[in-house]
């Protein structure tokens, strides 16, 4: 099993540019989560999907952020336009929605906005 | 969300047991206690979770106080690979869809 796959692993972009982060969950998992980690705020949940449907996006910081899950094997997190304060490590996680459904995290994408 | 209190850091010698405490005095009756850890430069990794009874798995044991206001994660024989930040997270069980709120955790250092 390849685990949760995220791309790119590192992204450096200039302020104002559009950034798209990608995630492939573990095959068969039906829940997907996007988290962001910074030194100041720690690890925080941005949004999660169940069966490709967004369930809770209350953690999305503002309208510049959007997330989609067009099918069970792919999700994107888009930032448009990007700002320096968006610099962080973004993690994607997936789980199998069952009583013992622990979340499996990907390796993360380190985003730097200059 | 239940508030948690964990030591900022702990040290342990290699091959010795480690007891990582967590206070969650405001936990609700239906919250499970989840533990995750994050190794350097990696995403968090599930360790264990429980509700009321003590739990064991291949990675660790979880001891839950009778009043559920605290719990202890036990690593029976620490290795260098166990050096990580350990997070204690009370969360309402939602069949894998738990909204996990990560605090600052405990940074565990293993001394060779």
Detailed description of the structure:
The complex is a heterodimer of chains A (114) and B (112). With 114 residues, chain A is mainly β. Chain A has strands at residues 5-7, 10-13, 19-24, 31-38, 42-50, 53-56, 65-71, 74-79, 88-95, 104-105, 109-113. In chain A, strands 2, 4, 5, 6, 9, 10 and 11 form a 7-stranded mixed beta sheet that branches. Chain A has a 4-stranded antiparallel beta sheet with strand order 1-3-8-7, with no helix packed on it. In chain B, 34% of the residues are buried. The A-B interface holds A 4, 31, 42-45, 48, 50, 55-56, 91, 93, 95-108 and B 34, 36, 38, 42-46, 49, 87, 93-104.
Helix content of chain A: under 10%
Beginning-to-end CA distance, first to last residue of chain B: 37 Å
Count up the helices of chain B.
Answer: 0
SSE string of chain A: EEEEEEEEEEE
The proportion of residues in beta strands of chain B is over 45%
Strand content of chain A: over 45%
Shape verdict of chain B: globular
Number of helices of chain A: 0
Largest sheet of chain B: 5 strands, mixed
Distance between the termini of chain A: 36 Å
Low-confidence stretches of chain B: none
> Could you state the oligomeric state of the chains shown?
heterodimer
Structural class of chain A: mainly beta
Rounded mean pLDDT score of chain B: 91
Largest sheet of chain A: 7 strands, mixed
- Secondary structural class of chain B: mainly beta
Shape estimate of chain A: globular
Radius of gyration of chain B: 13 Å
What's the count of strands of chain A?
11
């Amino acid at each position: 099993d390849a685990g949760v796959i995220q791309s790119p692993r590192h992204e450096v972009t200039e302020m104002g540019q559009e950034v798209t982060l990608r995630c492939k969950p573990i095959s068969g998992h039906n829940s997907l989560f996007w988290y962001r980690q910074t030194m100041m705020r720690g690890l925080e949940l941005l949004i999660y999907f169940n069966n490709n449907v967004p369930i809770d996006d209350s953690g999305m910081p503002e309208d510049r952020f959007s997330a989609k899950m067009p099918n069970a094997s792919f999700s994107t997190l888009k930032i448009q336009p990007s700002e320096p304060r968006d610099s962080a490590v973004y993690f994607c996680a997936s789980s199998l929605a069952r009583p013992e459904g622990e979340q499996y995290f990907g390796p993360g994408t380190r985003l730097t906005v200059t | 969300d239940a508030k948690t209190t964990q030591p900022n850091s702990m040290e342990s010698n290699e091959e010795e047991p480690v007891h990582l405490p967590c206070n969650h005095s405001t936990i609700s009756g239906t919250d499970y206690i989840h533990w995750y850890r994050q190794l350097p430069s990696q995403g968090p990794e599930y360790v264990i979770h429980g509700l009321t009874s003590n739990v064991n798995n291949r990675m660790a044991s979880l001891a839950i106080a009778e009043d559920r206001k605290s719990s202890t994660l036990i690593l029976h024989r620490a290795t260098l690979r166990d050096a990580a930040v350990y997070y204690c997270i009370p969360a309402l069980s939602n069949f894998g869809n738990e909204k996990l709120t990560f605090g600052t955790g405990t940074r565990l250092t293993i001394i060779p």
